[in-house]
Amino acid sequence: MGLYFNLPVKTLPDTPLSVVPEEARRVHPTLGGKQILAPWVLDKLLKPKVPKDAFAVIAFTTSDLWPGAGWNYVFGEASLRDRVGVWSIARFGDPETEEGFRSCLRRTMATGTHETGHMFTIEHCTAYECNMCGSNSLSEADRRPLSDCPECMAKVCWATHADPSARYAKLSEFCERQGLKSDAERFKALAAALR
């Protein structure tokens, strides 16, 4: 997150699931798994905790999320206005194997940076195939690049004062270290194109 947004990241203390009230929980009506209401997390849990010196606060959980009536689940949700967001790793696979870990890490990075992008007031991208495009399934999300399109990248860099070429170079190095080769190559090519 720090590399993606060119900002320092601080970790707040963990919050136990026991603080989530019954009205913000459900058992999925067809699949039977336990879920937490994402808007409750945003409004009741996170909004009161945004530090004065923070740009945003985002939580992540292993619990499955749903955004409200009529919805099955959501990978994450964020407020364009209130500087809060949440994402879940519940549907990202088993990180116990090396390949499973890489897959879970990439999905975590994509969802966390996507939702944080919303907190930078970036809406879903419809101009290009980019990290800020909406996704309605895991296979659709996996096809999306970790990188932003030129329009969304410009918004991130304007908001964070990041140098786009240096940002891409750092992201390429990070992805290379994590074994995310195609993402590393894409960020490297983007950095080179901007030099």
Could you describe the 3D structure shown?
The chain is of the alpha/beta class. The protein has seven helices and six strands, in the order H-E-E-H-E-E-E-E-H-H-H-H-H. The protein has a three-stranded mixed sheet with strand order 1-2-4. Strands 3-6-5 form a three-stranded mixed sheet, sandwiched between helices. Strand 1 and strand 2 form a beta hairpin. The longest helix has 22 residues, at 98-119. It is globular and about 55 Å long. The relative contact order is 0.12. The model has no long low-confidence stretch (mean pLDDT 94).
- Flag low-confidence runs: none
Major sheet details = 3 strands, mixed
Strand order of the largest sheet: 1-2-4
How much strand content do the residues show? Answer: 5-15%
Average residue pLDDT: 94
Q: Topology as H/E string? A: HEEHEEEEHHHHH
Q: C-alpha Rg, in Å? A: 17 Å
Secondary structure layout plus pairing:
Elements lengths: L1 H4 L19 E3 L6 E4 H9 L10 E5 L2 E3 L9 E3 L5 E5 L9 H22 L18 H6 L6 H11 L3 H14 L3 H14 L1
